[in-house]
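Sequence only, no structure available. Ideas?
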Amino acid sequence: MATVTAPGISSTASALRRLYFVRFAFAVVWALVMIPLAKHLNPVTATLLVIYPLFDVAAAIFDVRTSRSAGSPVLLYVNVVVSLLAAAGLAIAGASGIPAVLRVWGAWAVVAGLVQLAVAIPRRKLGGQWPMIISGAISVLAGGSFIAGASADNPALTNAVGYAIPGAIFFLIAAIRLGRTAKAN
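Reply:
I predicted one. Tokens follow.
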């Protein structure tokens, strides 16, 4: 049984596919740069931590502009605001130490994960969204662990930084899976 994909859906899937490949590449490069630096919080690591949610802002704006046929953009705008607040919070927390950074990073991961779930569930018709749904759920759990880890005797950024790698893998899987829908042009 063949399925027919509406042109708007296939072009949206194609745009999301490109976006997910870019997000995969960014997250991997960011993590590879950040992991060896994550032992200490200094201006370089603080800047890199702020860059991550700012990239999320840019990705959400691209998503809004290219995925109008996939549903309401309201939650993507929420994601923009949440990620901007996270970037500002991380910039401030960077001066307060690793526990503060982990709390902000964790809160952002929880809220961004909930938004990701809320965006991906209605997008299931596009295909390739199950990795995004799973990633959103994992983000919520990971965020809680970062917040809890901030109270540890010797809190470290390495787990928060390592969080980018599974996210990257889920973006890659989603991009590959969206290929079927994108090719239905």
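Residues 7-34 form the longest helix (28 residues).
Hope that gets you unstuck.
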